[in-house]
Design goal:
It catalyses: D-glucosamine 6-phosphate + acetyl-CoA = N-acetyl-D-glucosamine 6-phosphate + CoA + H(+). Homodimer. GO terms for molecular function: glucosamine 6-phosphate N-acetyltransferase activity. By secondary structure, the chain is an alpha+beta fold. It has one domain: 3-Layer(aba) Sandwich (Aminopeptidase). 29% of the residues lie in helices and 24% in strands. It has a 5-stranded mixed sheet. The structure holds coenzyme A. The site of coenzyme A (COA) has 17 residues, from strand 4, helix 5 and helix 6.
Length: 157
């Protein structure tokens, strides 16, 4: 009898928090598909990983690992801002969402955004916000977001 080695989508794409070993699974190369992202040494990666760990639930990076290739194929992060307004309320900020070009259109981006938005809700945020290009507006609408106000920026480099 033939053994069934095929795995379901859920078994294949593992949604979890970033682990230190993800640098060797293509995490930095994936970020390069998003923006300027020079390579970092193992030491630099470890230092930043340890720094972020100190924030605990206030800074979470989600990744999706493809179990068949052991590659990170999607990621995104959420930062929890603690405010005085709204009775010392909290706001989640989603950043750096990207899916590997070979894995787009399979709901992985939505899975990442859902994971991050759920994290913000479960840690008590009254809202979760993000900036995006006009091209990605429809994607975030599919994730339950709506357009509000405008984005301003001042670059220092
Ligand atoms: C934007 C991005 C993250 C979307 O990831 P993805 O995994 O391909 O998207 P999903 O498969 O989860 O899409 C979810 C839904 O949004 C739709 N969608 C995705 N991208 C879209 C787009 N650019 N325009 C319109 N609809 C889009 C999908 O068709 C799908 O709709 P459905 O549920 O009706 O089938 C991915 O294209 C990407 O990494 N782009 C480059 C980096 C980037 O721009 N990141 C965003 C920074 S703000």
């Amino acid at each position: 009898m033939q053994s069934n080695t095929a795995c379901s989508e859920e078994e294949r794409y593992i949604v979890r928090k970033l682990e230190i070993t993800d640098k060797n699974k293509g995490f930095m190369e994936l970020l390069q598909q998003l923006t300027v992202c020079n390579s970092v040494s193992d030491n630099e990666f470890q230092k930043r990983f340890e720094e972020l760990k100190l924030y605990g639930d206030d800074h979470v990076i989600c990744v999706i690992e493809d179990a068949t290739s052991s590659k990170i194929v999607a990621t995104g992060s959420v930062f929890i801002e603690r405010k005085f307004i709204r009775s010392c309320g909290k706001v989640g900020h989603i950043e750096d969402v990207v899916v590997d070009s070979s894995a787009r259109g399979m709901q992985l981006g939505k899975k990442v955004v859902d994971f991050l938005a759920d994290h913000a809700r479960l840690t008590g945020c009254y809202k979760v916000i993000l900036d995006c290009s006009a091209d990605n507006k429809a994607f975030y609408e599919k994730c339950g977001f709506k357009e509000k106000e405008i984005q301003m920026v001042k670059y220092f480099i």
